Amino acid sequence: MVKLRSFRIRIALLSAVLAGGALVGFGLISWWLIYEAKVSRLDAELESQLMRAGRPRSSEGWQSYETSLGQAFGTNGKTAIAILVIGADGNILYRSQQWATDLDVTNLWTSRPQLPPFPSPRFERQTAPFPAAKPPFPERLQPPPEVPPPTPRFATQHTTTGTWRVGAVTTPFTQVAIAVSLNAVTQEMAVIRNIFLISIPGVLLLVAGGAWGIAGSSLHSIRRLTTVIGNVTASGLEQRVPIGTTDVEFVELIQVFNQMLERLERSFKQASRFSGDAAHELKTPLAILQGELERTLQQAEPGSQVQQRLSNLLDEVRRLSGIVRKLLLLSLADAGQMNLHRVEVDLSGLLMEMLEDIELLAPHLEIQTEIADALCVQGDHDLLIQVLQNLISNAIKYNLPNGWIRIDAHRQGTTVSITISNCSKDIAVSDQSRIFDRFHRGDPARTRKVEGIGLGLSLAREIARAHGGDLTLDSPLSGQTAFTLTLPVGL
After folding, report:
1. Could you confirm whether domain 342-488 is CATH 3.40.1000.20?
2. Does residue 350 register a pLDDT over 80?
3. What's the pLDDT tens digit per position in 402-426?
4. How far apart are CA 12 and CA 212, in angstroms?
5. Does the global pTM surpass 0.85?
6. From the centroid of its chain, how far is CA 134?
7. Which of 9, 243, 331, 430 is most buried, with most CB under 10 Å away?
8. Could you give the angle at the alpha carbon of 474 between the alpha carbons of 421 and 329, nearest 5°?
C-alpha cells in the first residue's frame, strides 16, 4: 500500500524544524554568551581585588579585607566568598571558614617573583671652575627598576559545597586566592534556561501554525483545481478553473488542466453525438425491417421452414431494436439530456404486478416479499418500470435451479429503498467493480447460457441517477446477489 504524504504537513514540519534548529542554536549561543559575560565580569572584579590583596597585612587586616569583598562583589551576603593567603615562608597567613577543603589552587600559583636589589646612591664630584667655592653635594638618587605586576590566573572548580570561580595571584610577599561561589550565577542561568525552554516551543508552535496557514493559502489554487476535478462528470465537462489572481507558479498548471477539459469535452460531445445520431438513424430502418418481417411472416405458410427462419430473423431485429433504444438512452444520459416525464409512480403497485410475471416466467423459484404499502415517488413511469424489470429479469436469469428471489421495499425518511436479491453463484471479486460497465457480462462460465449484451444494469443505474437516486450492488454474501435501488420520494 502506497503511503500518502501531505505536502502541507511537510511544509509546516520543515518550517518548524528549521526554525527550531535556529532557535535552539540561538538559545544555546545566547545562554553561553550570557554565562561567559557574567564570568568575565566576575573575573574582572576578582582581578581588581587580587591586585589590592598583594601587599602584606595582619590577620585582622585580612579578616577586614574579606568583609569588604562582599560589598565589592555586590553580593550582600547572598554569595559565599572565601580567601586563602599564604606567606612567603609557605605558611598559611589567613584562611576563611568557607574555604572548601577540596579547593585546589596549587596549579594557579606561579613561581614567586624576586624583588630586584635596591640600588645604592652614587656620588659624583663635578669639577668646579673655582675648586674651593662650594662643597660637593650628592646627586639625586636613581629609582629602582620597575617590577612587572603579577598576573592573576582563574579557574572554575566543582566541589562538594558547589561550584566556585577561583582567582589566584602570586606576589613577592604573599600568595592570595579568592573563591566566589557560582551558585547565584547558576541560578540566574537556570532562570534564563527555563525562559528559553518555555519560549522556544511557543515560538515553534507559532512558526508551525504560520507555515500551516501560509501553505494552506498557497495551496488554495490546488484545492480549487481538486474541487473542479472532483466535479468533472459527463455533464460537467464545461467547467473551467478561473485563473484570476492565482499565483504565477500555478497558472501554467491551471491552463494545462483547462485545455485538457476542453479536449475531453470536445471528444465526449463528438462521441455522444455519434452514438446518439447512430442510434437515432438506426431506429427508422430497424422499424421498417421489423414491420416488413412481421408482414412477410403473416403471409408465409404456417409451419413451413420459411416461417421459422422469418421468426428467427424477427427475434434478432427486435433484439437489435432493444440495443439501439438502450444506446440512445445512454447517450442522452451521458449528455445530461435524458428527459423525464415525471408523474406520481406507485412502486408498491408495480412490484405487486411484477410478482405475477415472476410466477409465470419462473414457477420453480420461491418468492419472498416484504413490500410496504403506498411507496410513491415522482418519476418517469416507463423508465422506472424498465429498471425494475431489468433487476427482476437478472434475478431470474442468474438464479440457481430451485432457487429463490426476495424483494424488500420500504421507506427510510425521504427515500424509498428497494432491494432485489436472488440465489446465485458468487460474483468474482474482479467483476464486482465492473458489474455496471457497459457491455460487461462478467465470468463467461457464469453467463454462457444467459442472453444479454451487458447494457441493462448500466442503463438502470443511469435512469436511477437521473431521478436523483442510485443503484448499487450490495456487499456480496455467499450464495446470493443483491441490488438496491434508492429513489427520493419527491423533488
Report:
1. no
2. yes
3. 889 999 999 988 899 999 999 988 8
4. 5
5. no
6. 108
7. 331
8. 85
Domain with CATH 1.10.287.130 in the chain: 248-334
**Amino acid in position 9:** I
53 or 169, greater pLDDT: 169
- 38, HSE (Cβ side, Cα atoms, 13 Å): 17
Q: Residue range 83-98: average pLDDT?
A: 83
Percent of the chain topping pLDDT 90 = 8
pLDDT on residue 145? 54
Q: What is the pLDDT of residue 32?
A: 93
CATH architecture of 248-334: Orthogonal Bundle (1.10)
Cα 15–chain centre separation: 13
Percent of the chain with pLDDT over 70: 79
Domain ranges in the chain with CATH number 3.30.565.10: 342-488
Check: CB of residue 203 under 8 Å from CB of residue 16: no
How far, CA to CA in Å, does 262 sit from each of 251, 266, 290, 322, 332? 16, 6, 41, 33, 20
Which comes out higher in pLDDT, residue 66 or 373?
A: 373
- Whether the pLDDT of residue 116 is over 70: the answer is no
Dig out the grid coordinates for 120 from the structure.
645604592
Position 301, amino acid: E
Tell me the average pLDDT of the chain: 79
| Terminal C-alpha separation, the chain | 42
Q: What are the distances in angstroms from CA 253 to CA 243, 249, 256, 262, 342?
A: 10, 8, 5, 14, 43
438-489: per-residue pLDDT in tens? 777 665 544 445 555 677 888 888 888 888 899 999 887 788 899 999 999 8
Long-range contacts of 349-354 (CB under 8 A, 24+ apart): 350/384, 350/385, 350/388, 351/388, 351/407, 351/409, 351/418, 354/388, 354/389, 354/392
Rounded to whole angstroms, the Cα distance separating 82 from 347 reads: 103
Which band of pLDDT confidence, cut at 50, 70 and 90, is reported for residue 115? low
Cell numbers given for 106:
596549587
| Cβ-contact 99, 85 below 8 angstroms | no
Per-residue pLDDT, averaged over 258-283, amounts to 73
